[in-house]
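Example record

The entry below shows one chain as it appears in the dataset: sequence first, then structure tokens.
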Amino acid sequence: MEKLRRCIKMIKIVNGKIITPKTIEDNKILLIEGERILDICNSDKILSDECEVVDAQGGYIIPGLIDIHCDALEFKLSPRPNVTIPHFFALSYYEKELLSCGITTQFHGVYWGDVLEKHRSVKTSLEMIEKILEYRQVAILNHKIFIRFDIVNFEAKDKLFNLIKNRAVDLLSFQYHLPGQAQFKSFEAFKNYYTKVRGWREEELREFVKNSNSFIFNLKEKKSLLREISQIAREFKIPLVSHDDDKKEKIRIMKDLGIKISEFPVNLEAALCAKENNMYVVVGAPNVVRRKSSYGSASALHLIKEKAADIICSDYHLPSLLSAAVKLYQEGILKLPEAVNMVTLKPAEAVGLKDRGAILPGKIADIVIFKLKDKLPEVSKVFIGGKCVYRCESICNG
């Protein structure tokens, strides 16, 4: 056994501030054995000369970021209408971007429906999923699939069931984007988004809305089908997510379906109701960094100050994720371990990734080292499973 132990690579990370779930450990050593964290020990502890030494150069040592919602990949694969980038090429460069932002586990948002999204369809979503699954075989970091199921698209549920049964789904949400609720409180807001961003004509939208029922009506009317989907998801241990919650009634319906995560609640009332119902509440990093929602919904900073949020996701802008956690610490809203937990430990807990998300003995050694440059975080090293996969000492200004 001792001989086998000597064959396993040992790494000690020194000269940095180690952020655990509750403390900041200074003048300590982070010891990694193989792919796991072995210990946090005193800097004067005598270790084997065979240990590889990594100098954090006074930086912060945190767990790899776990981003449970980002829609950016579809734009990397198709940056313009009718333009498709070869997926290995797109994903390879996208991975480098993820690593530079300190993200080691990424949940890629995949829209599931054929109704409101002209450039999105079940067919294009299946193609995107196939590309992610194929790329996983050579991937550096952990790529997960997050299906965003639009509840007006029940015709597509059989194909979804096949994906679930083939274990191609890691996270599943129910969403609904019609006016009169959530982020589209009026038809005007709905029209502005879908005409400018999605290419619809106003008369098409009016006809579509006229033929659609209200959100709560649809939830009640389709509850048996939603229950069927959620039951199969739970059988395969897929966490369920509710999207753009705005009313207590909706929260209660979603809780009854077994949903444990509420992402992007549009007001404080909904967020607090979700917390009262033992749900994890997710807010977007761009909302934190910009200090406001892009749709006039609740400020993420306000929800965090009111202890009505647990998790931050990148949503659509990767660099904002680590920056949001740092901002919460710099502005005195949260202690540093609490802020880091919102992008590491809490998302890991919410989606059942018990093997990562914290610097504790036995956890997978997904580790990020970053420094502050002009008050902004700059990632210098990333380890995944104990292997250094990214290194960037500094960007020169010339």
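Notes for this example: The mean pLDDT is 88. The chain has two domains: 2-62+359-391, 86-350.
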